[in-house]
């Protein structure tokens, strides 16, 4: 008997330009509409299984200066591996000291630079704090600047304050790096008013803010939803007469992100178009920022075309954004074409890029295609995560293959993953869709046995399933169950309850339930506001808000901003005054710094200095304690 073969149609591989879209759209109007339907059903990503150059493991050829250089490099890599495994830098560094001999400076500097490149600021601060206690290490201003920068990146403004105070007590002049580090610490720590106070102080009294300072204050304002303040600063930078420096790429990118966050897409596009005239080149990151908030696949693809016409090479984020746009529009052919184009261009897909393509097929219930994508992940060393497994499960559910869904659900546990609320909800949705209420409730009980609390989506799914079976009473019971379980019904749940009510009596009952729920929420919000107001009044008393301010009904937020600005002014005024006193004070302590003393005396001095440092770093987090200590 002759074997039959199936011909799988493969979509185009070239860039998905607008010209190609018009060709694909024309086939929709052709007489043979079944051709497109058949093609859509038989999209198979077999091309993904073809070997690619970037997938081949290549042995790196390393060149060393000599045998000693090779030994040093291997020793340093071994050190980094040990630190990564132990998750403690100082303990590993201590073991490397031989007979209390100092560690090589190149090793210490190289380690710090590497941690800085990896943005492991917790290890940077740990190593620097340890070096501060070692008499054999000459702890200088640059070390302190790196330490305050590390605390800034970590958002630990308490420790950054103390390092700044320590620097001024030692006679170091105000530095833009230290002030910027403290400002960033405030911003990352959610103290946006204090971050702004530092910036305003730098503008008025110095040190002069750098480009990095402006980048960080813009980021702090955007994260704190202080859009007006960020816009004012950026407008000043755009003013050629008033601007101390030209805005760079990062500043433009932050403003594009800000307008995206604020939902003002027109201004985001305006900022984007302004970049070439202002000498800020548009990069892949710029185009990705613009693509990220577009909802229409046509707009996303249009920006992608602009990027290619500008001879800017897309990266994995660019491809992922375009694949996601096509997937959400259920255009699997184009999504697959973009993914294959990415592979052909030698761009290694990430786990997120694979998950996006997997979701594109899962939405339409294209199980075979989703399985090939799932299989390809492991080949490309992108290990599937729980999101990948849940997305693959949804492919079976959307294809109404509940037997396959049950088998794959068991595989999730077999492969070492614990299904979460979304995974269970996907299976519950499948049985609700199949109108198998008994199985649906069985899976719900199984989820509760596993100790997983249901979310509003699960309750809404069950409620809707009963309602579609003309069981309005059970739908009301599940709605009340959602409320009694401490899960706040969202607008979708309310709308579904109202839509399930068919008779006048049911409509009246549903309306009363929704209205009573809304009334309870309003009353709870009023009570919460009363509690907050009382707390704010207490905070004002403690913070030193005057009675005149209260009498003038100054908003608590403004009063808080004033108090925090005054706190920063006192902090900086005091440490600068200390700096002047230290410079003019000719005492024996200054002379000792320049003298060459014995190792024992150095160690004793370092020990005494370390004790004060340790007390400073480990003291409480109360702002008043900080101020007293610095004063």
Description:
The N terminus and C terminus are likely disordered. The protein is globular, with a radius of gyration of 31 Å. It has 631 residues and is an all-alpha fold. It contains 33 helices and no strands. Helices cover 71% and strands 0% of the residues.
Based on CA atoms alone, the radius of gyration comes out at 31 Å
Q: What's the overall geometry?
A: globular
Q: Estimate the helix proportion, in percent.
A: over 70%
**What composes the largest sheet?**
none
Q: Could you give the distance between the termini?
A: 96 Å
Unreliably modeled segments: 1-44, 526-554, 580-631
Number of DSSP E strands:
0
Strand content: under 5%
Decide which structural class fits the backbone: mainly alpha
Please report the number of helical segments: 33
Could you tell me the mean pLDDT? 78
Summarize this structure briefly.
Helices cover 71% and strands 0% of the residues.
What labels would you give this structure?
disordered N terminus, 631 residues, 33 helices, disordered C terminus, 71% helix, mainly alpha
